[in-house]
Design a protein that fits this description.
By secondary structure, the protein is α/β, with parallel strands linked by helices. The chain is built from eight helices and 16 strands. It has two domains: 251 residues, Zn peptidases (Aminopeptidase, 3-Layer(aba) Sandwich), CATH 3.40.630.10; 109 residues, 2-Layer Sandwich (Alpha-Beta Plaits). It is elongated. The structure holds zinc ion. The site of zinc ion has 6 residues, from helix 3.
Length: 370
């Protein structure tokens, strides 16, 4: 049994340590020291700290628990000290209290709880492992965070991402594709347009064509990928036909309509063979979806019910590390706290929910069959 006061104290200690994205060194060390003092196997990857129970083989079947230690910056709207944890009416106030140090505190104590049982030995015997990762740079989707280290786990079966979901199960998250659309023409004086080819006119035609295709396909689809023009560039002079025109489109993709599919369809639909349509690889994120029928969700629903929480699944709409979980692994977002509190001045979290979250995480560690 874990004492609720210990979870609360750990959360308070973490709130006291400033940990804005890319400045997670201190909190990462603090967590590493606390976990190794409880005789857990601890590793570091830059400012990510992780601890494993069970098998230490690289190919161990692994259940991941991931949450983030970085916070956004504080703003002038804060009327209390963001780094002084304060408890009032059962809530803890402070920067990151809700997003996502509450999840970290609950996961740490869940791991310590199951570490004091015969579970580590059972896991080791079957070449299975449970790894908790306190990740950096989630708020900026940085390469020094979870996405940059996930490859070192060769056999991830499932992942639970701790973010404020009010203990609902987020089982999908959209991906992203940033698409550069370039049309080509030939410059000429605008009084003699027959001597040139207007790239801007071609771009307008291409975009008109793409958006009528998009509207036709997704007219009645409530789960359509979004598609928005965010940048338009062409021309420099009022009397000159532009030789090139560029539109950048931002699409929030779904598991069904991936960025790759949208790019391929656009390429088929284009009106001019010399129009270039390219996805920006560095911005590309693949959507994640784990069906209700997956063993992870079935197990988590049962464990939530046993903990007195109504099990609900929903589409998670904020950002999280879920999209960096490998495509062949099951993944959900589940954590204490309310997403409305995230990134807000005087952020706070309901402490009872943090304590319930620890029980739920412990339950998943014990009850999910790898
Ligand atoms: Zn978060």
């Amino acid at each position: 049994m874990v004492n609720g006061l210990e979870i609360q104290n750990l959360l308070g200690q973490m709130v006291e340590i400033p940990s804005e994205s890319t400045h997670e060194e201190r909190i990462s060390e603090f967590l590493g020291d606390s976990l190794s003092s409880k005789s857990l196997r601890v590793g570091h990857h830059r400012f990510n700290t992780y601890a494993t129970i069970g098998s230490n083989q690289l190919d161990a079947a692994t259940l991941l628990f991931v949450s983030h230690i970085d916070t956004v910056a504080t703003t002038p709207s804060w009327t209390i000290d963001p780094y002084k944890p304060t408890i009032k009416d059962g809530r803890m106030y402070g920067l990151g209290s809700n997003d996502a140090k509450a999840s970290i505190a609950a996961m740490v104590h869940a791991l310590l709880d199951v570490n004091n049982s015969d579970l580590p030995e059972q896991l080791a015997r079957k070449n299975q492992a449970i790894t908790f990762i306190a990740a950096a740079e989630e708020e900026i989707a940085g390469w020094n965070g979870f996405r940059g280290m996930v490859d070192q786990f060769q056999n991830i079966k499932a992942a639970v991402i701790g973010e404020p979901t009010s203990l609902r199960i987020g089982n999908s998250q959209r991906g992203r594709e940033v698409i550069d659309f370039t049309t080509h023409g030939r410059s000429s004086h605008s009084s003699r347009p027959y001597e040139g080819v207007n790239a801007a006119t071609k771009l307008v035609e291409e975009l008109g064509n793409i958006f009528s295709w998009y509207q036709e396909l997704f007219a009645d689809n409530t789960d359509a990928p979004t598609l928005e023009v965010t940048i338009l560039k062409s021309g420099e002079k009022t009397n000159q036909l532009p030789y090139e025109a560029l539109a950048t489109l931002d699409s929030r993709t779904t598991a069904q309509f991936s960025g790759a599919l949208i790019l391929a369809t656009m390429d088929q639909q284009k009106l001019y063979p010399d129009t270039n349509i390219v996805g920006r690889e560095q911005n590309s994120v693949v959507a994640k979806f784990t069906p209700e029928s997956s063993p992870l969700i079935i197990a988590v629903k049962r464990i939530l019910e046993e903990s007195g929480v109504n099990p609900v699944t929903y589409a998670y709409t904020a950002a999280s590390d879920l999209v960096f979980v490998p495509s062949d692994a099951q993944g959900i977002v589940l954590g204490p706290g309310d997403s409305n509190q995230s990134h807000q001045a005087n952020e706070s979290v309901n402490l009872n929910q943090v304590i319930t979250a620890q029980k739920v995480y412990s339950g998943i560690m014990r009850g999910f069959k790898l």
